[in-house]
Amino acid sequence: MITPDYSTEAAPQTRERLIQTMIHLLQTRGLHGAGLSELLALAQAPKGVLYHHFPGGKTALAVAAVEATTAWSCNKLDEYLGGGADVGQALGRWIERAQRGLHGSGFERGCPLAAVALESTAADTELRAALAAAFQAIRARLAQALRRNGHDEAAAQGLAALIVATYEGGLLQARVANDTAPMAQATAALLALLKEKEQK
Amino acid sequence: MITPDYSTEAAPQTRERLIQTMIHLLQTRGLHGAGLSELLALAQAPKGVLYHHFPGGKTALAVAAVEATTAWSCNKLDEYLGGGADVGQALGRWIERAQRGLHGSGFERGCPLAAVALESTAADTELRAALAAAFQAIRARLAQALRRNGHDEAAAQGLAALIVATYEGGLLQARVANDTAPMAQATAALLALLKEKEQK
DNA sequence: TGACCTCTGGACCGACTGGTCTATAGAATT
DNA sequence: AATTCTATAGACCAGTCGGTCCAGAGGTCA
Questions:
Q1: Cα separation of A26 and B181, whole Å?
Q2: Is the CB of A132 inside 8 Å of chain B's CB atoms?
Q3: pTM here?
């Protein structure tokens, strides 16, 4: 007889706490900037717990964090883009949310994917695979919505990549500037260009 | 009588080699991912040399690397934008160069500024100041050229931020995708939008 | 009740980190 | 020739890194 695999209460909480803490550290310090001792202190967990839930250690936890971020982002995108909503509008809401997060954290919390993306090397195969899948999934969702909005396949893919780039690049500039302005300006410029194209 | 301050031959070579090596490591692994031992081995320099030229240690060298990158980028931009050339064309050349660099390094070499930007915290004041100045300078140069091309002040600033964001975000996506496509697509989409606006 | 299992807790470890310090080579100055 | 200054060289250090290992806590089975 197969044991029902609903786990105990405590276990998923701890595991989830580790992932959330890792996401937070990736946003603020990046992968190598985040030490295990700091992570465990923030998550209020001893070392053994980490290696129990993630035998692969720090890297495995980072992969889990990347995957959790991917899932979360896709859900949020689906929510914003749901019902064939206008991509420009959805993008506006998305960026607004990011700006609030950045500003609210004193310009410390950026994108958890971006930092890892720039620190990882080709040797970090699992991490890279997770990151590649993440951006791929996000672009695919955007492209799908753009196609629904009347763009052809090539244009949809191009605009999807441009939107993601604007988001990541805008966040990066805003972070070092200690000011949301660069991100807001970049986004506004992109939205204006998109609107003009529509009206053409 | 003032001593002519052309320095000895050896000194600036070593110092420069340290900076160039740091830039390379920032591009491939980021600030925290790059160890001093690796840096010194690549630069073929003993430890004492580093702390002789950069009493501030690793961070001071990173600041110097950021500043050198800024100067280099501004020079290149001036070259591309010189004589009131079209911004779209200049941007195309700029991005093409970055793509060749990325592809030629097996998708390892990205932007030395971006990685540091995401790893640094508000506590790293010098590093942050250097980075803020870097992006500020680059945006200013782009905005100036855009104004020459007939955009008003606000539009020029917005587009400048958008261009930088596209560059950084495109590079990031291409890096993890192991494929220049996302960057090429994002850039092409942006250039297409700019061209449409011109013709409007 | 005893065996088992998942999960927690933390002592412990070797490797490596960034950084300091002293010795010295060699050119420039006196 | 003696001195001074810049630059090179690397031994050395304390602290921290990620990771291993084992002891128990507490639940769920037979």
A1: 26
A2: yes
A3: 0.93
